[in-house]
Design brief:
The chain contains 15 helices and 12 strands. By secondary structure, it is α/β, with parallel strands linked by helices. The chain is elongated, with a radius of gyration of 22 Å.
Length: 375
């Protein structure tokens, strides 16, 4: 099986694409993962670096640019045609728009059969130019019922669409004691701490977040909001507006960006997780990680969020207004037993839905069917 991933950045779909390929390899399939060998300037090739650390080192003998580059793409098409002729793959799995375009140009007679993962969970965010490529795939692996319905409406046969649940490392992200991380962040045991994990950008609705925090703080003296993330627009988008509201370092805190086990500990340190707008990863990995850690999640109705959060059971799915979020925050602050029940339900739901082993089994079964059909 040849997997193509046209990016060098470890962002958005990179982790789920690599996890699936590694899981298929561990299940006994022969898998080659080719990712971008082209980096802009002197940037670090994070997919190659992290992929190697995870035990499935990507092959980087193709440029595989994220965006269309006519001359690079033409050269990749010719190289890939030679690779397919020499290495005799049974199936080609594409993950992004440009690697799909390159692969379709390299195929002869539709062989090997091509399948595609679709990580967008909002139909309107699928580029129009990509729709024609999706229509030529033997199977489409989707992570959103909304995208599935939109593809069917555009004429894709339903039997060619395979609905998957996105995964999370359930052994790493699990409930645990976050009291030490809570103290390091400067919060007292009696504080009610809401957390958001997101790149700080204007389109992520930090205006809504701060408006809700301002309202919640007026009704709950111990309310605290911690923003986990970074971004070139952090000062203008979040820190300065929080300062103008009189919330900075009193209600709203910006401790920065965390990685590895520090990140897991910080998740366990908060009482509830907020998520407003999906970013480059439409499958909203940060929501799945929070649910796996046993945290209730307050989310908007955007994209896949209403599918991930079971309203009233594992969190709340809310209207995109400061009043709705402030009311939900105050209710959870005043009802610790409700938080406990939602947290337990969140972990149970994560275990039932977000298993990598289950996803690998589904994809492997689809591979067998596609290869038999092609034969």
């Amino acid at each position: 099986m040849l997997h193509l991933f046209s990016n060098y950045k470890w962002t958005g779909p990179a982790e789920p694409a690599h996890a699936l390929a590694a899981g298929l390899r561990d299940r006994g399939l022969s898998v080659v993962f080719r990712s971008s060998g082209y980096t802009k300037g002197n940037a670090t090739n994070h997919v190659a670096e992290r992929g190697s650390a995870c035990g499935l080192a990507p092959v980087t003998d193709l440029d595989l640019s994220k965006h269309r580059k006519p001359w690079r793409d033409l050269r990749d098409t010719r190289r890939l045609r030679g690779i397919l002729a020499a290495e005799h793959f049974d199936l080609l799995h594409c993950h992004l728009a440009n690697d799909t375009r390159i692969a379709l140009g390299a195929l002869r007679g539709g062989l090997p059969p091509l399948v595609r993962s679709v990580y967008e969970t909002e139909p309107e965010r699928i580029p129009r130019f990509d729709l024609a490529s999706l229509a030529r795939a033997r199977r489409l692996f989707v992570f959103s019922r909304g995208v599935e319905a939109a593809l069917v409406a555009r004429g894709v046969a339903r039997e060619r669409i395979v609905a998957l649940e996105a995964t999370v490392d359930l052994a790493r992200f699990r409930p645990g004691d976050g009291s030490a991380a809570r103290r390091r962040l400067g919060f007292a045991p009696e504080d009610f701490v809401a957390g958001i994990v997101a790149r700080v950008q204007p389109q992520r609705r930090f205006d809504l977040l701060l408006d809700a925090a301002e309202r919640a703080a007026k009704e709950c003296a111990r309310f605290r909001l911690v923003v986990i993330g970074r971004g070139s627009k952090l000062e203008a988008t979040a820190r300065e507006p929080a300062r103008r509201r009189g919330l900075l370092d009193r209600v709203v805190f910006f401790p920065g960006y965390f990685e590895g086990e520090d990140y897991v500990d910080v998740l366990r340190a908060v009482d509830v997780k907020l998520f407003l707008v999906p970013g480059t990863d439409g499958t909203a990995r940060a929501v799945r990680e929070a649910l796996a850690c046993g945290l209730p999640v307050l989310a908007t109705r955007r994209g896949v969020l209403p599918e991930l959060v079971r309203d009233g059971v594992t969190g709340r799915v809310l209207d995109e207004t400061p009043e709705a979020f402030a009311s939900a925050l105050v209710a959870l602050a005043r009802e610790p037993e409700l938080r406990r029940r939602m947290g337990e339900a969140a972990r149970e739901d994560a275990e039932a839905r977000f298993s990598l082993a289950r996803q690998v089994e589904t994809v492997a079964a689809s591979y067998r069917t596609v290869i038999e059909e092609a034969a």
